[in-house]
Amino acid sequence: MKDSPGVVDLLGVLAYAELSAFARMAEDAATLAPSLGDRAALSELAAAEYSHFRLLRDRLAELGADPEQAMAPFAAALDAWHARTKPSDWLQALVKAYVGDAIALDFYREAARHLDPEIAKLVDEVLVDEGRSEFAVARVRALVEAEPPAGGRVALWARRLVGEALSQAQQVAAARPELARLLVERAGGEQADISRLFATLTEAHNKRMAAMGL
Amino acid sequence: MKDSPGVVDLLGVLAYAELSAFARMAEDAATLAPSLGDRAALSELAAAEYSHFRLLRDRLAELGADPEQAMAPFAAALDAWHARTKPSDWLQALVKAYVGDAIALDFYREAARHLDPEIAKLVDEVLVDEGRSEFAVARVRALVEAEPPAGGRVALWARRLVGEALSQAQQVAAARPELARLLVERAGGEQADISRLFATLTEAHNKRMAAMGL
Questions:
Q1: What is the pLDDT of residue B187?
Q2: DSSP code per residue over A21-59
């Protein structure tokens, strides 16, 4: 399984996702945070994304893959997702930091279930949240309690985050069949597995929305 | 010396310098790097700035100071410096990463010479380059060798980096006499010490320019 081109694709898309999340969160922190404390907290998440990127890049190199080449096929889709979901205020930035990344993580977790245990362990290590995003949940709850109409607006926006992510994921899956196969490679037929995957993603998203009081 | 307000000022300005350098380098990496490898290399420097920020913030908290309050007086001057020295291409971004930060570091090193050894050790730890910016030097040399006229233009631009830094530093020194005193607190009179300081800064800058082949 380690030699499957799907594995290099998986580590490549995950590496680019971390590198681009690093840049976007750093920018959101600098431009949207209402205080230096909030700015530091979101910058902390950004820095964590960078250290994940480094783990993945080093692993790609160990596998004999060129990290740049492995990431390149996914840059356009991930950049498009970020461009279409650019937060316009601090509340949106927090929701994106928590929900946006989590959606991507759900995809990767699914793929990791089909991997060589050693690679699966690395992916898990990169994906583990370690409570870092808890600050985002707490801040969102407080902002929404203080101004309930903002909760309705940001909940709609969170739905757009998911919709745009699924749209980009479909394009990536069409272009990279090896990677898509990692997600749906299971007895019982592809269609049933895709339905189960989408149900899992939706359920996880709803739990996160509830955690934020949305 | 630990209780001097100048020490909190020094750690505060250094903390904000790291936090803002983190954001600017992350942005320059995402928007100006010509390849994913270059983007990763400058993002690595940005992430290092963040980890320095964290050390300084934690130290401020240990001293009983509020990190946000300690940083706040310096945000305007550092933001102004970044706004006036925004790189317009990759070569400028590299020169800024190497020279721009180094100028600031020279100031802090001077101040650190007057500090309690424990604080001086932390400042040294934060300031040590560890060869991280060597990639910038190597890339600048290669770009300038390939296109010598670009060297002349970027050398002028580097001079502007220094000029803007001195201009902001003078305003900060006027507004924060305790901090200024850390820089010039020495037998022999303030004026002689300021002259020596400026000579040291200029010499260090010239060495860095030479290292880049400029």
A1: 42
A2: HHHHHHHHHHHH-SSHHHHHHHHHHHHHHHHHHHHHHHH
Q: How far is B42 from chain A (nearest CA, A)?
A: 11
What is the pLDDT averaged over residues A36-53?
Answer: 93
Instruction: Return d(Cα B176, Cα B171) in angstroms, integer.
Output: 9
Q: Name which of A43, A58, A59 to mutate to probe chain B: the one with the most chain B Cβ atoms within 10 A of its Cβ.
A: A43
Which residue ranges in chain B fall short of pLDDT 70? 1-4, 114, 129-132, 185-194
DSSP character string of A143-172 = HHHH-HHHHHHHHHHHHHHHHHHHHHHHHH
Give the 3-state secondary structure of residue B10: helix
Residue A3 has pLDDT above 80, yes or no: no
Which residues of chain B have a CB within 8 Å of the CB of A70? none
Domain positions in chain A: 5-211
Find chain B residues with C-beta within 8 A of A22's C-beta: 26, 43, 47
Nearest CA in chain B to A66: B37
User: What would the two tokens of residue B82 be?
Assistant: 């970044």
Taking an 8 Å cut-off on Cβ atoms, the answer to whether B50 and A44 are in contact is yes
Residues from chain B that touch A39, judged by Cβ atoms under 8 A, are 19
Query: Is B5-211 CATH 1.10.245.10?
Result: no
Write down the ipTM of this complex. 0.85
A125-152 residue pLDDT tens: 777 765 667 888 899 999 999 999 999 9
Partner A, chain B 59-78, Cβ-Cβ below 8 Å: 67-68, 71-72, 75
